[in-house]
Design goal:
56 residues, mainly alpha, membrane, transmembrane, transmembrane helix
Length: 56
């Protein structure tokens, strides 16, 4: 079996881009980009802690 790559860091730019897309549609680009970035960081931290608990 192939070894699973741990690329959960890529979740931050994904949420950033989703926030930018929503911001373009609502004409509030900066506000939604910041919100997407913060949500991306929160999800990253949550997944990292969950993976640490599962690997123990």
């Amino acid at each position: 079996m192939a070894k699973k790559k741990k690329n959960i860091i890529l979740i931050i730019p994904a949420f950033l881009l989703m926030g930018m897309a929503v911001g373009i549609q609502t004409k509030e680009l900066f506000k939604h980009t910041i919100v997407g970035f913060i949500v991306g960081i929160i999800v990253y931290v949550f997944l990292k802690q969950r993976n640490r608990k599962l690997n123990k």
